[in-house]
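Q: Can someone sanity-check these two? First one:
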Amino acid sequence: MKSLLTGLIIMLVALLPDTAHAQWPAGQGAGWAKLSVFHHRTTEEYRADGRKAPFLNNGAESRSTAIFADILLGVTDRIDVWVQVPYFDLNFDDDTERRHSAGIGDIRMSGRVNLLQLRGGSIPISARFTAKAPVADLTIDAEVIPVGEGQWDYEAWLESGISLWPLPLYSVVWLGYRWRTLNQETTREPGDEFTFLGEVGGTSLIGGLGGKVVVDGIFGRPGKIQGLQLGDLDRREIVYLAPTALYNFTSSTVLEVSGRIPLHGKNFPAGAPVQIGLFHQGGIFN
């Protein structure tokens, strides 16, 4: 149960792809902000063999809403810093009990360095390092939904993209690895994860309308508890396809509406989260 309930959080924060504008360095003193709202509801999960089936708890249903506030600021023309603060409202009900938790979750802090600008700057290649700091207390009660995971995690990413300007088209590729550390209170060490994201899209294709398609996912290793290696029942995997509609209010403000359709999963909640996001670049910073 604990692994499943924690999966409700991981499902929502696995990658959280940016708007295309965010892939290129912001520049010294410039930046962007994004506010995203996710909602997810399901009565099914992916089992260890990849099969989708109802939750093992009789009559169980998961309902999750999350709000993410992201802010990125350019320290120099090649170095950005990025902070993400989440708020979760999580519910898991079955025939015997209704469980509810709400609060601020673990905070993610990133630093990104632009390594190369190829083809006149239209192809950036960057490296990003992220640390996830445990903010919320993680209870050891297996029947309580956690709003945080209770341990530090670290991520390394190699990111690139290509702009086809003057055509309003672009693509983005991210490859990453997430190191997950020991939770001292629960004596559990979640398995490390390989992560990826691929995105293609266009902005202002018809008037202010645009769109993008994102494929992202994680492939985890089994974790440990009290130093003992767990098996495939603890190995989490998920791959999402996220078609997204974009509306450009201005050249610097974009509304995103998307659905995240699961293509493959193991030991993960099933169902398709929906997202609404508002992205703004520049003006509030300079």
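And here is the second, same format, sequence then tokens:
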Amino acid sequence: MNKSLSLCVQSICLIILVFVFYAGYCGYNNGLSTADFFAGVTKAAQGDYESLICLVIISLQLCLMRWDKAVFNAALCVLSFALMAELVCIILGPKIAFTAPLQQLLAAEGMPHALSSFSALYWLTPLLWMMALTRAGAQVRIFCTAMFCYLAWIALTPLFCELVEFWKNYSSDVMPQVLDIYRNATWMESVTIGGFLLLYALFISLMEAIFPDSTPKK
């Protein structure tokens, strides 16, 4: 009975998580305000029923195959990364929270303060983070890994930018195609470091689901 109840709760939470992301995608329109999000909820609920049914079926299948823990672990990792960025943005400002190259890109796109353009994230991120926290495994390790990777991203991005500048001024042509990408898109420097660290954190979170702690409980 307890296992059936646990499976039911896990399935409902996974369906809610997937639906919220789908509604956010439907409501995205040059930003994601609270009004945009609820417009997306309405659009998702009244629009493409086939997509909704597929999302529900996939969510249930993941639970039955016992892959739901991996999904929640990955969601907790990404949401912890986003939550750290949100907290730093609120406390220290967006220039520190999103690194200088990304902040320049956001300013060029007319979004100097990202959370003002995506205001629904103020409450969506902590809400989804809390739900993922209750359903994931090895919560402390996943959160600490994501927090460390986020702080490493902030610290290592300026160093990587300096390395790319040295690469640009180097007399010999080393991987010119890759160098052209960094010349034409300065924000790639920040994305490269952030993407690598986020993938590392995701890998750790998935390993926690695949190889859980087998230490017997006393």
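A (reply): Looked at the second one. The CA atoms of residues 81 and 146 lie 5 Å apart. Confidence is low (pLDDT under 50) at residues 214-218.
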